[in-house]
Structure formats: structure tokens, C-alpha cells
Amino acid sequence: METLLQQQVTGHIGCHADGVTYIVPVNYVYSAPYVYCHSAKGKKIEMMRRNPNVCFQVDEIRSIFNWQSVVAWGIFEEVTDVEESERLMQGLIHRIMPLANDPGDHPSHGITENDYDIGNGVDLIIYKIHLEKMTGRFEHH
Q1: Which residue, 71, 75, 94, is CA-closest to 5?
Q2: Cα separation of 25 and 44, whole Å?
Q3: Are 111 and 98 within 8 A, CB to CB?
Q4: Is the distance from CB of 129 to CB of 13 less than 8 angstroms?
Q5: pLDDT at 121 > cutoff 60
Q6: Which residues contact 64 (CB under 8 A, 6 or more apart)?
């Protein structure tokens, strides 16, 4: 499970607030026991602020007969310390950017329309999920 969490960079967060459940894909970096992510303000951030208990899921699917999946439960924590935020953002960029299809892609891809929004127009939120419990499943034929 640790290996799968370290190898992958995209997972899904499930959050629940006010009777509504919401699942959304995120790019992340894993360093036990935390999953680190970044986001603009929006539905999932609002929901996680209201209810920090979240579910995090990662999988690798090679075929319908060859896949593995980890489901974890944890607590959302917003990172407000500026130095920690900057350090984590650098870590996210270094981990995720080499995997971008186009070298011109910006780490903000999927967060803002324009690269130049970063750092002025868009309030980037760095957060971590403290994984407290996890379970893994796999299928190999």
C-alpha cells in the first residue's frame, strides 16, 4: 500500500458535508503519514473545512484483471504557515511536473485558466490529509 501511494501522483478525495458526498480527483505527493495537495478555493475545500474527515483513494489499473487500489481515511488540515506552504508547493511541482505531457504545462494546470493567475489572482490552498487508517485490494490473474 505504501509503495502504491508513493508511486502514484493522482488520487481521489471523498468528502462529505451537509448531507452531500463529493468525490474529486487530485494530484498529490505522499510522505507518510501525510498526503499533500494544492487547490484553489472551491467546493471540496469548503466541504473539508466543514467536515475534515475524508476518504482518499489511489489505484493503478493495468487491465480489468490486473489492478491495485488503496483506500485510506484521514483528517484534512490546511497548511497556513507560509514557509511550509512554499516548501510543499515546491515538492508538489518537482514530483508532478516531470509527468506533464507538455513541458510548457504549469503546475497550476487544472486549477487556473492562465499561468499568470498564480501568485496574484488565485488564492492557492496547500493542505494535507493525515492518513489514519488504510486498506488495500488487488487483483492479478
Answers
A1: 71
A2: 10
A3: no
A4: yes
A5: no
A6: none
| Residue of 39, 127, 114 lying closest to 81 (CA atoms) | 127
pTM tops 0.85, yes or no: no
Q: How many CB atoms lie within 10 A of CB 28?
A: 24
Query: Does residue 111 surpass a pLDDT of 70?
Result: no
Question: How far is the CA of 85 from the CAs of 25, 73, 134, 135, in angstroms?
Answer: 21, 23, 26, 29
Q: Write out the three cell numbers for 100.
A: 506533464
* Secondary structure of the chain in HEC code, one letter for each residue: CHHHHHHCCEEEEEEEECCEEEEEEEECEEECCEEEEEEECCHHHHHHHHCCEEEEEEEEEEECCEEEEEEEEEEEEEECCHHHHHHHHHHHHHHHHHHCCCCCCCCCECCECCHHHECCCECEEEEEEEEEEEEEEEEEC
Mean pLDDT of the region 37-62: 95
**Grid coordinates standing for 112?**
487556473
- Cα 127 to the chain's mean position, in Å? 9
